[in-house]
Amino acid sequence: MEIVRTTKRISEALAEARAKGLSIGLVPTMGALHAGHKSLVDRARAENDIVVVSVFVNPTQFNNATDLATYPRTEEADCAMLQGCGVDFAFIPTVEEMYPEPDTRTFDLGPVAEVMEGAMRPGHFNGVAQIVSKLFAITQPTRAYFGEKDFQQIAVIRRMVALEGFDLEIVPCPIVRESDGLALSSRNVRLTAEGRAIAPAIHRILRESVALAGSGADVAAVADYVRSSIAATDGLELEYYQIVDALTMQPIACWNDARQNGAVGCITVYDGDVRLIDNIRYF
Question: Same domain for 116 and 147?
Answer without folding.
Answer: yes
